[in-house]
Amino acid sequence: MRPLQHSSYANVASTLALVLVLGGGGAAVAAGLAKNSVGSPQIKNGQVKRADLGKNSVTGAKVANGKLTGADMKDGSLTAADIDLSSLPAASVHASATSSGTLTSTQAEISSVSFTAPTDGFVMVSARAVLNAGETGTYVFGHIREDGDSLDNLYWDAGDTDGFYDQAQSMFVVAPVEAGAHTYTLELDERSVSTTFSAYTEAQIAVQFFPAGSLPVAPRPAPAADAN
To answer: Other CB atoms closer than 10 Å to residue 104's CB: what's the count?
Structure first.
């Protein structure tokens, strides 16, 4: 058998250095990496954490287009400065032409306006007419409808029997509206009249659309029936 060779100091030192580098000397390995030499293939999937990212290091260029959603945004954090306001639906006003005529005891449409809501939102519907009473002791029933459904109603005084249009009456209602086409109508009829009905002029209905809003107070309920 060959006799064991004595280890020299140089042998021991070189062996110890190799163990430190390969075993626990990760810092030595990292120190030896060239700049920009670690890429995605060298990183285990899912191992980069939030703590590894520098503050303000992620920019819009690093985010895939269309990947951020409302769930990624803090509620109330976006302001007008963050939004392209030209891309939002704008408030709008739509009004009918004015009409004139004579009322009857039958509820009838005297003015209407149609418009298309670009999104869900709210509308303020206003209606008016100027009346000239034909007899005393009568009253006019005004009714606003949306697509045939009742939105609001009000009793109007027809004014004096003096031959002048002297009683301007109006009503309005605020209500939520769904995106799409809608028609709003003003209907009038006169009640408690014997022979002479009131005349009306400048009858008009207008709709103001708002893409957002709120109804802290419920609107007045519509009548249970439309009986004259």
So the answer is: 13
pLDDT tens column, 72-87: 778 777 776 776 666 6
Contact 130, 105 (CB under 8 A): no
Q: What angle do CA 214, 217, 219 make, to 5 degrees?
A: 100
Question: Distance between CA 226 and CA 191 in Å, rounded?
Answer: 13
CA dist., res. 133 & res. 162, Å (int): 8
Among candidate residues 205, 216, 202, 198, the one with its CA nearest the CA of residue 103: 198
Alpha carbons 157 and 164: distance in angstroms, whole number? 14
pTM of the predicted protein model: 0.61
Contact 130, 200 (CB under 8 A): yes
